[in-house]
Structure formats: C-alpha cells, structure tokens
Amino acid sequence: MSHLDTHDVLVIGAGASGLAAATALHAAGRDTVVLEARDRIGGRLHSAATAHPERGLDLGATWFWDGEERVRSLAARSDVETFDQHLAGDTLLQETTGVRRLAGNLIDAPSRRFAAGAQSITAALAAELPTGTLRLNTPVTALHPDRQTGGLTVLTPAGTLHAEHVVLALPPALALERIDFGDALPADLVRLAQSTPVWMGAVAKVVAHYPTAFWREEGLAGAAFSRTGPLQEIHDMSGPGGKPAALFGFAHARTVRPGFEQAVTTQLTRLFGPAAATPTAVHVQDWSGERWTSPSTVQHLADYSLFGHRLYQRPVLDGRLHWASTETATDHAGHIEGALAAGERAARAVLAAAADVADGLRAASR
User: Fold this and answer.
1) Which among 73, 137, 269, 317 could disulfide-bond with 277, CB atoms 3.0 to 4.6 Å apart, if both were Cys?
2) pLDDT digits (tens, 9 = 90+) for 28-64
3) What is the largest CA-CA distance in the chain?
4) Any idea where the domains of the chain sit in the sequence?
5) Which CATH number describes the domain made up of 51-67+83-114+202-289?
6) Residue-by-residue DSSP string for 96-155
7) Averaged pLDDT, 238-247
8) 1-46+118-197+292-366 in CATH: which number?
9) Is 356's pLDDT higher than 70?
10) What is this structure's pTM?
C-alpha cells in the first residue's frame, strides 16, 4: 500500500456491526473499506458447516426475538431462511443427587433462528458491498490523528491507510488492548472502554451434533440446566424439522481444559441417556481464547451496566472516530439487533458530519 491508500471511511471489524455500518455508508455513496483481522467475516456470528446443505450450527450468536426489527427485516430482504426455536417438551434439572424431569420448557422463550446459521446474516450484508471493500487478515495496530490532513491514519501490517472517519466495530476493551491510540483518546473514555465487558467473551459454547434429535422422541425439549456442570444450561440447536440434530450449552471459559469435551459428553449422557454418548461431532468454541474477540482481561470485566454508555454515543478525535459494536448499543446490547443498531448509528454520525462539512463549505462560498 502507498500513501495514496485514502478513503472516506475505514471500518475496523467485519462482524454484524461493522458490516451494517459499511453497507449503510456504501449505499450513501461513501468510499468505505472494511479491515478485518480474521480470515473470515462474521465476528461472533460464526457457524459450523454440516453435511446438510444450507444448514449450519451456531458457535456464537444464535437467536433473535420479537421486536428486533432490524434482524427480521434484514433476513426478509436478503432471503435468509429463519425458523422458530424448538420449544415443545420437558426440562431436565441436573443436581448433585441426580437428574429431575420438570414439566414443560422452563428455559427457552419464543424466538427465531437462522436455518443456515447466524453467519448467513453477515454474509448477506457483505454481499451488498463492492468487490475490494473487505480486506481480511488485516489487523489494525495503531490509529492516530493526521495533523496534515485533519483526518485519521490507520496502521496495519500491510501498510498505512488514511480516512476522514473511522468506525471501531469491535468490543471496546479489545480495541484498547490491540490498537495503539497513543494519548489521543480522552482519559475517561479509555477507562470506560477498558472496563466494558465483552458479550460472550468469558464463555465457551459447546455444540454436540447427533444423527437424530432423539430427545424429542422422549418428550424432552432439549432444555436443561445444571448445578454441577460443566454446561450450566443446555438448549436444542437442531435445524428446521430437527435436521441437523444438535444440543448446545454454555460453560465458563475457565473450565475448558484437557478432558473438557469428554466431561461434556458424560454430562449429556447423564441427562439425556445412552444415545447422547456418541455424538457425530462436538464443537467447543472458547470465546475467551479468541484473540480478535476477547482481551486478556476478559475474565475480570463484569460491569454490564457500561453497555450503551453515553460516551460511546459521541464521536471523538474531532468527531472522526465512531464506536460501533453490540456493547455500545443503547438498546438490545449483546444481541445481533444491538450490533446492527450500533453500526447504523455510527453510519448516521459519519453522514451527518459529512453533511455539516458540506453545509459549511456552501456557506463560506456565498
């Protein structure tokens, strides 16, 4: 890259928030480039492929709910197939003394899922962008104001880029750990970002794939909660019509160590019987170990009241640096809906700033 690698907007992060911002900016005619550290898009929307065509198993975000209109409308206009979360059946409770069966599904609420996996939502957003907009395997190492142009300079291992505006579409604590801002950011914002939890950052998500959803034949919902672990809560993750068949659960990331996968299989067998002992595959996604999701401090970040903080709603560095990630959303923080909302908010702020500049230039020319 050369010094001429200049754009209107750089978006850092190709998850749901970053791609929502990029598509809105592109639709408004802004020259936008998305820089993504990973070799894939999606961020915490990450789906494992299965032998069933167009069917995936979510290793990250899974559901959306009534009232989350951004997700619903995006899926509808992009022809992303969605379906209702399976609810029918009884719940299991695992205690030290054994397993109890409780009438009805006491864990799951009505919600919807994506037949091909949640990553299909980010794929739909990426499809709206021109070729060359996405740059994968491009982590940002530093960001600072450009005193000559008044814009921002962004450093990556591949070279230096310049932009009028930058959208930070990654967890704030991760941004502060991975990107060198020098002393450019206000101290109160630095403290806030370093203290804000990362949604799912301290958990491991485990998906056990089976040939059939055998638990449904026993009148079970696939829902369970445990006081002994390693999985604390369990849900049915089967696709439409029960295919592919799967159960998934959450565990504290600190419990993931050698033997963890076998401990999970043993737990599922105790809960759901011998058929659970031989999964086709077990996927363990430890989000705390994802260097492009979680900072080293992730296990110590616990104040979720910081989500959507007022400081995240205000652009900094002369109004050129904008926050966007589900943690910065004022509504539905932690959800896909929150990520889309944060990305759209950042895009609106960029466009409003550009409009103010244009108005100022017109006024000066009179």
Assistant:
1) 269
2) 999 999 999 999 999 999 999 999 889 999 999 999 9
3) 82
4) 1-46+118-197+292-366, 51-67+83-114+202-289
5) 3.90.660.10
6) TTEEEEESS-SS--S-EEETT-THHHHHHHHTTSPTTSEE-S----EEEE-TTTSSEEEE
7) 97
8) 3.50.50.60
9) no
10) 0.95
